[in-house]
Amino acid sequence: MNSPHIDSPDVRGIVIPLLSSLPGAAISTQPPTTILPLLSPILRQRVQLLSSGSTEPWIRLLTYDTAKVPKLKTIAQSGELEPHPASGEIEIDWDYDVQIKYRRVDKETLQTLVVLGQFDIFLRLVYCVGDKDGGGDGWRVGEVGVASDPSPLDSFGGFSSIQEAEASFETANSTANKQINGIYSNGISNGAASAQPVDDGEDDDDDDYWARYDATPARTPATKRSPAPQSIAQPSQASPYRSSSAEDAYFAQYDSVQPAMDPHDPDEEVEGMHAPPSGPSGLNRDAAHSVEQTELNETSGAWTLAEPPRSPSERSTRSRQDDEERAAGLVHPRPESSASSNGSLTVAKLEESAEKREQSEFGVKQHISRSIRSLFLLSRASGIDREEFERMVRTELDVLGMVEDDI
To answer: How many CB atoms lie within 10 A of CB 115?
Structure first.
């Protein structure tokens, strides 16, 4: 990786001004303009936007761990960050109380962790490129937090110099690329080999298991009996399909079934007229005797019916009379006829008058209800309570009952 040379950060020039601003940050709601260039673009935008119009101190915006804000505020107000009276700077033992680590996160991010064990504070620095508001390329403060419980060094890791961090990143990056390329090439070269089955004992067991199903007959082990009567059953079980004549005979047996929910029974209307067939000729004795008697009467020319035979003219006259009688039974009074007009008009008038009376009564009731409501509102506005109003209404009703006849 060909990256530009990056110098180590000026830790003292960044840490001391920021630590000097923390006591004021624990009280003030707006950050000073001299501190904003020290912050990274992301942290700078966070502080500027969230502190605008807020009534809380802006020190809470320097850390992303909201649970550590109270402790960070306590450290800032403890007095340990006050400058020395002689030197005018915060005294820090840079050799023993300060730990610095470097880490390359990706090709664009290089970070530095500065842990100040004396004050229990850490600063995470980020190398920024093209930061015009911060003065160009350089190191900026990305976060300020509490350095204990847990220690940021555990999660940060890092190395003692930038060169070590860069070398470690290059090594890890090249190793990852080699592994990816090796997996890809091995997958292509071993594709044909992986397609070949592996001969082991488990495959033999699987073959034996599935071979059982190959030996099983395709037909079902037992043939279910058809619900059709035995008389129309299939003559042979060898044919897997049923003929159309057998299907017609199967469904024809349900034509004479009387549904349970149908109250109409056609057998009651023709009772005694049709007898079930019996005997070889399909007719019972009574039906045979009736047929023989009719044939005998017709042969001898003697009619035994209730009415004598009519001529064609008599039959046509009788037919017309029957039609007129049936039509007369269907005649009903029409709405426009004189026989029904008077009754219909009377009913319509009575219904109209009843409807008007109901409307009038409803309007009167509504008027009385609204009047009482208005009187109650008027009495309440005048200072009369509900009990007094009810007593007045009852008194008026009692007086109305006494003088009702005189009104």
So the answer is: 22
Cβ neighbours for 355, distance < 8 A, ≥ 6 positions apart? none
Residue 93 pLDDT greater than 80, yes or no: yes
Mean pLDDT of the chain: 75
Distance between CA atoms of residues 202 and 249, nearest Å = 56
Token pair recorded at residue 270: 């023709």
Residues in the chain: 407
pLDDT tier for residue 207 given thresholds of 50, 70 and 90: confident
Task: Out of 11-25, 206-220, 314-328, pick the least confident.
Answer: 314-328
Contacts of 295 (CB under 8 A, 6+ apart): none
HEC sequence for the chain:
CCCCCCCCCCHHHHHHHHHHHHHHHCCCCCCCCCCHHHECHHHHHHHHHHHCCCCCCHHHHHCCCHHHHHHHHHHHCCCCCCCCCCCCCCCCCCCCCEEEEEEEEECCEEEEEEEECCCCEEEEEEEECCCCCCCCCEEEEEEEEECCCCCHHHHHCCECCHHHHHHHHHHHHHHHHHHHHHHHHHHHHCHHHHHCCCCCHHHHHHHHHHHHHHCCCCCCCCCCCCCCCHHHCCCCCCCCCCCHHHHHHHHHCCCCCCCCCCCCCHHHHCCCCCCCCCCCCCCCHHHHHHHHHHHHHHHHCCCCCCCCCCCHHHHHHHHHHHHHHHHHHCCCCCCCCHHHHHHHHHHHHHHHHHHHHHHHHHHHHHHHHHHHHHHHHHHHHCCCCHHHHHHHHHHHHHHHHHCCCCC
**19, 121 Cβ separation under 8 angstroms:** yes
- Confidence grade of residue 296 (pLDDT, cut at 50, 70, 90): very low
CA angle, 161 as apex, 159 and 166 as ends, to 5°? 80
Contact present, 173 and 1 (Cβ < 8 Å): yes
